[in-house]
Design brief:
Elements (H helix, E strand, L loop, with lengths): L1 H15 L3 H23 L4 H13 L3 H4 L2 H19 L4 H16 L3 H17 L2 H81 L5 H28 L5 H5 L10 H12 L3 E6 L7 H21 L5 E7 L3 E8 L12 H12 L3 E6 L5 E8 L4
Parallel strand pairs: 1-2
Antiparallel strand pairs: 2-3, 3-5, 4-5
Helix pairs in contact: 2-3, 2-6, 3-5, 5-6, 5-7, 6-7, 6-8, 7-8, 8-9, 11-12, 12-13
């Protein structure tokens, strides 16, 4: 049963191919002519009748090669009905051509016409003799079957098109909903977090200006707090601007790319100014172009490591080492402080660094060193797989 279905499927695909009508029409025309002449010779038919039968035989097959589905189906059906009605004869090739044109017509969308063109054979089967009933009955039943197969394949094709259109519309709706949700989250984060960060900057500046007798070191610290808050506010607005698709054109123009290793010197300068301690950058190997995601992960890991050093080892010097290999970028950030307290080893900062390294396919290790201080080591691939 499965073998029959496969053979019918291959036949249907051949019939639907662009070149199939021409090939089928030529082959069927030659076969119909040969069969018609053979019948006439064996039946002792005169020459004029042989010529008429040959023309009818061509009429039942040739339109397949030269006409579009609708006129070809009408012409082949008319010639077949005429051949059966007048001469009680229809070639096997003519029957095959009838099936092809009815299938093509049903596939092209002429469902009603394809069904109607199969009914004349049913009328001839009911009105004719035994031989005619059998021949036309076969033509009627197979013609209807071919037409319905074409109609079914046409309906299936339309269903696939409609399904693809529905999926595209659903995808667009989902994307639109996601954009709206991102914009809503960005607005809420901006409204809540930006307010508090702005208040930190304002209060730090106010305390520095209004506190009498404040030591210079304290005033510098408050100034640094205000500068850090304003820098954090600027970076947060830039990041949230990526989520917001309803931003004004001037806001979009102010957006900047995410930082990378080219901004590393600025980061170290800021760390020196903030902590008052030394921060060295050591580069070894041959610097190579990295994937933007890898550069961003390296920058954020170094940034978080410097922040942790300022928090847990204030005044300690920090060495930042970048070692380029053929396959990876290796980072080492080490300070010479006492090391973080045990309660800080499981903080969110260390977890965030590990997650950033894992996100680009890298590894990260943290912990105190044997000679004191704290070490952050990371190995990041040059390209994200």
């Amino acid at each position: 049963m499965n073998g029959d279905s496969d053979r019918w499927g291959r036949t249907a695909r051949f019939v639907a191919a662009p070149y199939a009508p021409v090939v089928a029409g030529l082959l069927l025309g030659a076969g119909a002519m040969a069969e018609s002449v053979a019948r006439a010779v064996t039946g002792g038919v005169d020459t004029q009748l042989v010529l008429v039968l040959g023309v009818l035989a061509l009429g039942t097959t040739a339109p397949v090669a030269f006409l579009r589905p609708t006129p070809a189906a009408i012409a082949v059906t008319a010639a077949g009905v005429l051949s059966l009605g007048l001469f009680h004869s229809l070639t096997v090739a003519g029957l095959g051509a009838q099936l092809i044109v009815l299938y093509r017509l049903g596939r092209a969308g002429g469902q009603l016409l394809a069904t109607c063109l199969a009914t004349p054979y049913l009328v001839l089967a009911l009105a004719g003799g035994t031989w005619e009933q059998g021949l036309t009955g076969i033509a009627a039943s197979l013609g209807l079957a071919a037409a319905w197969v074409g109609i079914a394949r046409s309906a299936r094709g339309e269903a696939l098109v409609h399904r693809a259109a529905r999926q595209a519309v659903a995808g667009r709706l989902l994307e639109h909903t996601a954009r709206g949700e991102r914009a809503r989250i960005a607005r809420e984060l901006h409204d809540v977090v930006a307010h508090h960060i702005s208040m930190i900057a304002v209060q730090a500046e106010t305390a520095r200006l209004t506190t009498p007798g404040m030591p210079a070191a304290g005033a510098q610290r408050l100034s640094e707090i205000g500068d850090t808050a304003r820098a954090g506010l600027t970076e947060m607005r830039r990041l949230l601007g990526v989520l917001r698709e309803d931003a004004a054109p001037e806001e979009v123009a102010q957006r900047q790319p995410q930082p990378g290793l080219q901004q590393l010197n600025e980061l170290l300068d800021h760390a020196r100014d903030t902590s008052g301690a030394g921060a060295r950058l050591i580069v070894s190997g041959t610097p190579a172009e990295l994937d933007p995601g890898v550069e961003l992960a390296a920058y954020r890991i170094i940034q978080e490591a410097l922040t942790n050093a300022r928090r847990h080892a204030p005044g300690a010097a920090v060495d930042v080492e970048l070692h380029y290999t053929d396959e990876a970028l290796r980072l080492r950030i080490r300070d010479n402080g006492p090391g973080p307290p045990a309660t800080a080893l499981g903080g969110h900062g260390l977890t965030g660094m590990r997650e950033r390294a894992a996100a680009v396919g890298g590894r990260l290790h943290t912990g105190p060193t044997a000679v004191g201080g704290f070490l952050v080591e990371a190995s990041l691939p040059k390209a994200v797989g």
